[in-house]
Fold these 2 entries.
Entry 1:
Amino acid sequence: MRRKLAAGNWKMNGTKAALSELEALRDAHPDPAVDILICPPATLLSPAHSLVGNSPIAIGGQDCHAKTDGAHTGDISAPMLVDAGATAVILGHSERREDHDEESHDIRIKARTAQAAGLMTVICLGESLDQREAQDTLDIIGAQLSLSVPDSSTGLNLVVAYEPIWAIGTGLTPTPDQIGEVHDFIRSRLERRFGPGVGRSVRLLYGGSVKAANAEEIFAISNVDGALVGGASLTEAQFSPIIKALEAAV
Ligand code: PEP
């Protein structure tokens, strides 16, 4: 059985004051029935790790470099994330693909490095609105999946997040049928590539304007093992109901 996962991506939001939200989240979920992951900005990784301590909440990075060290000013490596207390890293978020021209093959190399450092990689895939309207969604997702996911992936070190670009931060969400179609497709591709054992053990998250009001409907869709949440993960008040909806779906 795949353990469900509620992951929060704080993006470039939060200074030390935001740690009070993490503290509230920790106190609200001492024994969750699902995995909880918070990916704060890199500046907060270390204090966030100290704050969650031995609680069930895991801490993750939002990106890492393809190399483990060297002359790469401003970048952060996978071993540095581990050193700061991270156990996971988001890779290939559409904002990284867009703002930093990241291509799927870059993401595969980063993922290989991150997995070798012991991190669970949350690899993001998603189509634009134009691509969906042109009915190219499955072609785009299939190509991103095969190029972004390294051969070193297992059910423990890979999570795939389907995040339609047009749904991120917009309040728009695909219909349950549209989400189900893509998740079933990703599952079948993973099974074909890695075999049924690994293919069925990789968790698939949906991301894009998940909030308390739509969480229950999204978590009822087959092959949705949780969510990657941006805006609604920034406060305990908004994220806790999503976690509870996921626990109810267990
Ligand atoms: C995200 O950035 O991964 C995301 C899903 O954002 P939001 O929940 O705000 O749409």
Entry 2:
Amino acid sequence: MNAQKILLLVLDGIADRPCDALDGKTPLQAAKKPVLDRLAEESVCGIMDTIAPGVRPGSDTAHLSLLGYPPERYYTGRGPLEAEGCGIRMEAGMIGFRANFGSLDSNGTIIDRRAGRIASTEPLCAAIRDGVDLSSFGVEFFFEPGAGHRAALAFRGEGLGANVTSNDPKHEQLPPLPIRPMTEAGSDLHTAEVANEFLRQSREILSEHPLNAQRIADGLPPANIVLIRGAGLMGRFDPFPEKWKMTGSVISAAALISGIGSAVGLEPVHVPGITGSADSDLKAKIAYAEKELERKDFVLLNIKGADEFGHDGKPLLKRDFIGVIDAALAPLLDRNDIIIAICSDHTTPCSVMDHAGDPVPIIIRGPGVRVDSVTLFDEISAASGGLGRIQGGDLLPILVDLINRSEKYGA
Ligand code: ZN
Ligand code: ZN
């Protein structure tokens, strides 16, 4: 039997280094994970530098690389991808920003950079969409809520540059900063002027919004200022379905990852109950991925959570959460009809509390795969597998070849 479909499962930041608290084992080595080990036993295994050896990937650049879009050519910053992930249809040339709501006191000092982690900002975003007018600049804007206090802003218009600063002073008890151009270019000055006017108008709208009056009456910090950062120019992506001759979907709780998927031409699928943290409904994610595979050739499924424990420097919690992920993956054991690739997007060592450049484990299972003798899913075991050491850009060509859709090179 030949497989026709591919599931790429990225366990975000699950790879690690040996941890003292785990007697020199990595969280993957120390975890109880019968499902991942069974899958590894039935796979060809290896290790992978998602970008290149020693390069410390961001989740965004790593995912671009895994999807076959070299970040050095395609990555223009987090803002436009995050905006796409918040549902703004970013076109090439548009400027995207990450945004969040904060709290200002009556003196114009920022007292909370996350507005008390306000749960929902949709009414505030709607008021800004209705009230702000940038037409005198010839600029159209888009403003959409993200999870919690987060949001995204985008500008569309002629002559906009992306090299501008943030208005976020990064610390509380300071006033917001003006947006400034970072070069002499007229396009960057133009964007700075537009952004400052957007911020001025939105601040007026938010200060008068009934939701904020209610929050103040309830003793909560008002969400009365928008902080923007990470400006970037949206690039042009060769559409995934044309590049790889496959239709595809992306499932991720993180706006950044669904934004990357959407930007390259994967359909973002919303799964109720997923949070991007350790309390996410992982079983629902697997079920939705299987459902998507009924109508699509390729699904990218990102499971977060392990990465957070790495950033927090918590090896025992990371180990235990790997067990939770493992249990949710059980339905995959019965999927002998598809190609399943499981990897991490980067190593997030608990000892570093950030991403590191170490290679990640990768396993590929399914019809036609030359199974090797590796029987465990971890960084060290996988290194002796049949895939050897590959790079992120190698992954899709290998997977597409396994479903016999790659083009012959030569006669
Ligand atoms: Zn990541
Ligand atoms: Zn991370």
